[in-house]
Design a protein that fits this description.
This protein has 285 residues and is of the alpha/beta class. The chain folds into 2 domains: 35 residues, no CATH class; 228 residues, 2-enoyl-CoA Hydratase, Chain A, domain 1. Helices cover 33% and strands 18% of the residues. The strands form 2 sheets. Strands 3, 4, 5, 6, 7, 8, 9 and 10 form an 8-stranded mixed beta sheet that branches.
Length: 285
């Protein structure tokens, strides 16, 4: 009956437009997955969809690895003297300092990892591709000798395109210089852990980076001396699938483990305890 019929009011649709900043989103360079930046940050800049490990800064690796408040930086005033007066080199160094922060491509210092005293050096790819010049070689040498003096393990995190061409033969000399001091460290019985990130190539991979007592690598990291295109042209053959990746090197016995970034801190601590026999309560300054 009409008595019970209610008059229907037309529905109105009021949509609230959310203002989301354009820079709130991130896109994975490998799989194209798009997600909010905060999710990438929480995952330590590892893609939540495919697990691709994006590059992070030296400071982010320091924050990841060491106990809070324990980082003490060493040799941070060293900078290149531009010995060859290479064209535009001084300008490029200044631009790299503004971009990356530190005065050269590596940060060095001592800290604690799960309570254990460690000496830590971390390369920053944002500084001229993490290239190794005279300052990088000198800081590694000084840090290694500091490790010998303190008898505390050395950890070097590499991310580099190789030797710095603007310093010519002086940059190539750093390969020998770092290799010699690492040999001194090993002769003294002090553990050395090398962590390879994407990429670790050229003179860095041909020297100290592959001389660790334990060599770890992040998933998917490119590790090698010359690039695959150069190798293919030289040997005249197609290269195996996955050539020069961390997983390929693990399968062929060149590294000890592939460790996701989120597990790196705990894995490094566990390995160093086995190597030194030290537990947090026993770790010396």
């Amino acid at each position: 009956m009409a008595w019970f019929k209610k008059e229907r009011k037309p529905r109105t649709s009021e949509r609230v437009k959310l203002e989301i900043p354009a820079d709130a989103w991130e896109k994975c360079d490998q799989c194209g997955h798009v997600d909010i930046r905060e999710r990438f940050v929480r995952a330590l800049n590892v893609c939540p969809n495919c697990g691709y490990h994006r590059r992070i800064s030296a400071q982010e690796y320091i924050d990841l690895l060491v106990d809070e408040g324990s980082w003490h930086e060493l040799f941070f005033t060293l900078k290149s003297a531009d010995p060859l007066k290479f064209e535009n080199y001084a300008d490029r160094v200044q631009a790299a300092v503004k971009k990356a922060g530190p005065l050269d491509a590596i940060r060095t210092g001592y800290a604690r990892l799960h309570g254990m005293a460690v000496n830590l050096g971390v390369m920053d790819f944002a500084f001229m591709g993490g290239s190794m010049g005279s300052v990088v070689g000198e800081k590694i040498a000084r840090l290694t000798r500091h490790a010998i003096d303190k008898r505390a393990p050395l950890i070097l995190v590499s991310a580099s395109g190789g030797a710095r061409m603007q310093e010519g033969v002086l940059s190539l000399m750093q390969m020998a210089k770092t290799s010699v001091v690492i040999a001194e460290l090993q002769g003294a019985g002090v553990p050395f852990m090398s962590v390879l990130t994407n990429p670790t190539t050229g003179g860095v991979s041909a020297s100290y980076a592959m001389q660790g007592d334990v060599i770890l690598a992040e998933p998917g990291a490119v590790i090698g001396f010359a690039g695959p295109r150069v190798i293919k042209q030289t040997i005249g053959q197609d290269l195996p699938e996955g050539f020069q990746t961390a997983e390929f090197l693990l399968d062929h016995g060149m590294i000890d483990a592939v460790v996701p970034r989120g597990e790196l801190r705990d894995t490094a601590a566990q390995l160093l305890r086995h190597m030194t026999g030290a537990w947090p309560a026993e770790a010396a300054d």
